[in-house]
Amino acid sequence: MLTVAIFLPLLTGLGVLALPRSRPDLVRWTALAGSTLTLITGVVLWIGFDPSGGNLQWRMTAAWIPAIGASYDVAIGGLSLALILLTAVLLTVVMLYVLGEHDRAHAHAFLFLLLGTGLIGLFAAQDLLLFYLFFEVGLVPMYFIIGIWGGQQRRYAALKFFLYTRAGSLAMLLGFLALYLGMEPHTFSLPEIIAAKPLAHAPLASALVFFALLIGFGVKLPIVPLHNWLPDAHVEAPTEGSVVLAGLQLKMGGYGLVAILLHTLPQTVARFGWLLAIIALVSLVYGALAALAQSDMKRLVAYTSINHMAYVLLGVAVAAMTGSAAARQLALNGAAVQMVSHGLLTGGMFLMVGMLQHRAGTREINRFGGLIGQMPAFSVLFGLLAFGSLGLPGLSGFIAEFQVIGAALQLSVWVAAVTVLGLIIATAVYLRLMAGVLMGSPPPDAAALPALSPREAWSAGALAGLSVLIGILPAVLIAAVNGTTRILAQF
Amino acid sequence: MMVLFAIPTLPLFAALAVLRVGRRMPWGGGELVVGAAALSLTGLMLIPDGSNLSATWFESGGFRLTVGLEVTRLTWFVATIVASIALGVAIYSLGYMAEKADRPRFFAELGLFIGAMLVLVLSSSLVLLFAAWELVGLASYLLIGFNYAEPGAPQAAATAFLMTRIGDVGLLLGWLLALTLTSTTEIDTLIGALGRQQLAPAPVALMAFLMLAGAIGKSAQLPLTGWLPDAMIGPTPVSALLHSATMVAAGVFLVLRLYPVFEVAPGALSAVFWIGAATALVAGLIATGEMDLKRVLAWSTASQLGEMMIALGLGGPLAASFHLAAHAAFKSTLFLAAGVVQEETSTRTLDRLGGLIRALPFTGTVFLIAGLALANIPPLSGFWSGEAILATAARHSFGAALLIVVLIGLSGIYIGRAASATFFGERRPDDVGKPAWPMKAGMALLAVAAAGLGWLLSGRLGSILSFSAEPDLASAWRAFAVAAAIVGLAFGAWRSSALPLGVLPAKLEAGLMAGTELPAIATMRIAQLLNVVEAALDRVARGIAKGSSVIAGTTQSAERQFDAAAERAAGGVWRLAQNSERAEALGFARGGDALAIDIAGIGERLRTLQAGRLYLYTLALFVWAAAALVAGGLMLWL
Fold first, then answer.
1. Which residues of A410-444 are buried (b: 16+ CB within 10 A; e: fewer)?
2. Are B410 and B284 in contact (CB under 8 A)?
3. B607 assigned to some structural domain
4. Rounded Cα distance, A132 and B456, in Å
5. Minimum distance, in Å, between the CA of residue A485 and any CA atom of chain B
6. Taking the CB of residue A46, how many other CB atoms lie within 10 A of it?
7. Whole-number Å distance between alpha carbons of A135 and A220
8. Is the N or C terminus of chain B more exposed, i.e. has fewer CB atoms within 10 Å?
9. What is the number of alpha carbons within 13 Å of residue A312 lying toward its C-beta?
């Protein structure tokens, strides 16, 4: 079943390519059906999931390259499950959003579905080489998406994105190779590596591997100073590309940090815990401050991603350093919820910005104003997503952030204090955005903007609704994630 | 149980209902909110003391987060104040909003506020209290920005939310600290653990200071005062309910609710006193020189909340609760009357008003009753609560009591001046209309409370709340206070057309507002600087890319060294592009399609123009490869 979930998008994508060229609408509907089916498969995985059953559920193994100890080995724990569901949801939402856009629909749908396979596979892979393969599968289509359907500077942005993440993934691969070599007999099997912790007694080697993986995952997360690709890639990517890029691809980094780096090298992560914490705090404040100065909404939302994803790194740092298993689990639960929450809220924010760009042909904040009167449904959704992003209780962001901050408080009150400083600046970012776009009056020469179409309202509404669901009933998500984090917290 | 659940949720459901059906109702859905507030108040009258509801919200890492509501003497008392004022203001709003656009949105936001405020007050769990605390802030934001197109409104709404949030993160850290100390969010568990002296004093003191930050933000105490006067741009019923009677009193309520935490942290309690004293004095002084009627009342609110903080800091929670109730009644009445003045004359600037007592006799009478109550004149409510605070202060020290008398004198000056400038003297505005009957009804309801509440509660409050009673007050102090009030009123009324205390108050206000803006401006500067840095980084990246392609073209020796590798990397991308192109061509069965050309174009560019950049990255890859080799070697060696 897990394998079905992984390859269903790819199969749909291949099927789409076989459709006649004259029927882009058929392509769109097929892609939507395929991603909906993937979502249904994900829900089946969830129903059959035992929250206390460990990290290797729905496991399936098959020989792949036995000569070097690499195998097709997929299984899920709570964190993987949550991220797979997030992938399926965002993929479906994106496919819903692009219904009716017929610009080279075949290739567009194929690339997005290929991405879906890469991401779901990545979150399920229990073999490092397989993980790397899916990592690349999740990466390459985005290069084309940005390069083909992107904005004016798309080529520069695509190349920058590609080279940054490529360098990161190469560093990651070298780290994996070192772990592989450290195992006797050599194997890429993640569960075996986690059980053996091969480099625990080689301080220098483990430090090198740590930095290699930190760079690999850090580029994707992203952390300051490896973030420079992110604003360009987000701004130039088409709306649906930004949604997937922010909503899902950044999670590749976050998932890698939690499920691989922390899991295989806990002592090393603890050794460099303060470094991680400082990087996280710098990213948190830097991302928020940089967002505050933006006049382009898309660039603004892109920078807030740096702020939000830094909570994931902070959660990992706190989990590695704190002595209390309870606080460790609190931190990791916070990190896990933050990944899901950021996917929903920031994905939603990119959709909202895309809707404005589509209508007005610009993303400059000062070209808008007073949308409450013109587009009430849009304004409600926009406000909901913005307040969710700034951590208002009742939405998912709060659930994530307070857990990370609470755990950080056990480590040091100063770490928590800097974190809330970032929270205040992030609040200012969203307040400024809402004051400029929703309130006030439109500029005198601005054209009237039409209200939301049902397709737009449903795609953004689904994301906002899920965020509210998690915000009010966090147990839905935490119960699943708890299983993973409980195991992680006992390293 | 059901009743307890219904008390805060009825207004919330009413808010939802207003959004759906408000447009089709005669009062724009306001009647639903009035009904919900009335039912909540009825529920509070019926509910037995000690009722509670509690459930586990979720567990994370052994920390149990609970949500629950609880009727204690304090929560019942404050909830009753909230529901009563809300009822009066909601009735008034029926008339106030009758002719205005977007009524359903207004009443939905009002309902959201009333429900969230009742949750805040009745909550037995810190996390629920915090959630309601933030939702109240959201409602305040939405209501301040209700007239979103009015210049200044978006800014005022954002400032209010942001400044209170600075305090809110203190409360957030405070309750998280409580969570890490007790593993739960139940207020009773925390207070029980304090009672059994199970908690170390240092973290408890830290917790008290953090919670105090939340109280400062919400109650507009220094240094987070500046948002409150700006919030006066909101509709006047909002100013009456949120920004004088209930929401801004939440900070005082928080200290009351967690008083045991503060009691074991003497440092925090004296901070409460000093902050309250500074705010009461500064805001009271500024109020004397303000020209805008609503802003006079706003500064007065900050000052009066400061007085409550003084009482708390001096160990008089009973006096603070008393003043909270009395202030809620008389200040909301003053605001409602000011709202009538603004609606009927279209201005609220003091030097454009005057002589309105003849045109608006009812409103004027109501304003005077509430104003005299504010100024500590017996037998109105403010006199009794002021006396309680004075008694607490006098027990503490002569200086504290003197401070209270000075504050009473100041309140006499500013309210005497405002009342005189608005309702007496030369009649300024012409053709003044009459307030609609619901506005009169709302004002009447609250004015009765402003007049009689003090007499009603005096001597009985000790049996309603479980705080220890305040000491008796020496009659000399009582006489002194009333004399100060009368002198203040007379002085303020006499100087109604001028600045009674010279230019100092105006300077104080300008300084305070500038001090508020300064950190915001500084943050924005830093942000813009970072943006410049980001742009420069990007330029550098592009420059390096361009420059290195030049270098790559000219520096043959270096080129030769990395030539093979660069070719490989570029070739890899090229092959990838070609493969994709082939896949596309196969997929579409027709060659030469736009996509393939596009991809080929990118590949071509990669191969030629970008070779220089690839070259740089290749260099980086070599560093990595070297690092890996070293790592591998070390592993074999170790």
1. bbeeebbbbbbbbbbbbbbbbbbbbbbbbbbebee
2. yes
3. yes
4. 75
5. 8
6. 16
7. 11
8. N
9. 33
Picking from A327, A251, A317, A238, the residue whose alpha carbon sits closest to that of residue A278 is: A317
The answer to whether the peptide bond before residue B223 is cis (omega within 30 degrees of 0) is yes
> What is the length of chain A?
491
Complex ipTM, two decimals? 0.93
Cβ(A70)–Cβ(A64) below 8 Å: yes
Q: Do B628 and A435 touch (CB under 8 A)?
A: no
For chain B, how many structural domains are there in total? 1
Let me know if residue B591 belongs to a domain.
yes
**B411 closest CA partner among B325, B266, B519, B306:** B306
Residue A196: half-sphere exposure toward Cβ, Cα within 13 Å:
17
List all residues 6 or more positions away from A52 whose beta carbon is below 8 Å from its beta carbon.
A483
Tokens of A246: 């922010």
Phi and psi at B196, nearest 5°, equal -85, 5
User: Cβ of B436: how many Cβ atoms within 10 Å?
Assistant: 17
The span from the CA of A369 to the CA of A365, in Å, is 8
- In angstroms, the CA B111 to CA B103 distance is 12
pLDDT category at B623 given cuts 50, 70, 90 is: low
In a mutational test of the A interface, the residue from B148, B516, B521, B618 whose CB has the highest number of chain A CBs within 10 Å is B148
Long-range CB contact pairs, B553-556, < 8 A, 24+: B553/B612
**Residue A444 pLDDT:** 85
Q: What is the residue range of B615's domain?
A: 521-637
Structure tokens at B262: 């503060």
Say yes or no for a CB contact (<8 Å) between B625 and A328.
no
Indicate whether B578 pLDDT > 90. no
Question: Which backbone phi and psi does A295 adopt, to 5 degrees?
Answer: -110, -15
Taking CB atoms and an 8 Å limit, are B531 and A294 in contact across chains?
Answer: yes
Measured distance CA(B320)–CA(B313) in Å, rounded: 10
Q: What is the pTM of this model?
A: 0.89
Pairwise CB contact (< 8 Å): B162 & A178:
no
DSSP run (H or E) holding A71: strand A70-76
Contact, B16 vs B28, CB < 8 A? Answer: no
Q: List, as ranges, residues 324-353 from B with C-beta within 8 Å of A.
A: none
Chain B (134-173) residues lying within 8 Å, Cβ to Cβ, of chain A: 134-135, 138, 145, 148-149, 153-155, 157-158, 161-162, 165-166, 169, 172-173
- Contact yes or no for B48/B8 (Cβ under 8 A): no
B539-564 pLDDT tens trace: 877 776 666 556 555 544 444 444 45
Q: Are B263 and B247 in contact (CB under 8 A)?
A: no
Assess if residue B185 is contained within a domain: no
What digits encode the pLDDT tens for the residues B128-159? 999 999 999 999 999 999 999 999 999 999 99
> Which sign does the torsion angle of CA A101, A104, A110, A115 carry?
negative
Within a domain: B558: yes
Contacts of A382 (CB under 8 A, 6+ apart): A352, A371, A434, A437, A438
- For B561-571, letters b (16+ CB in 10 Å) and e give ebeebbeebbe
Q: B610: helix, coil or strand? A: coil
* Amino acid at site B73: R
Say which amino acid occupies B226: G
Mean local confidence (pLDDT), B383-402: 91
- Using the beta-carbon criterion (under 8 Å), do A159 and B63 form an inter-chain contact? no
- Partner residue opposite A329 with nearest CB, options B60, B176, B635: B60
Tell whether the torsion through CA atoms of B331, B335, B337 and B341 is positive or negative: positive
End-to-end CA distance of chain A: 30
| CA distances from residue A395 to A341, A390, A470, B57, B85 in whole angstroms, order as listed | 9, 10, 7, 14, 30
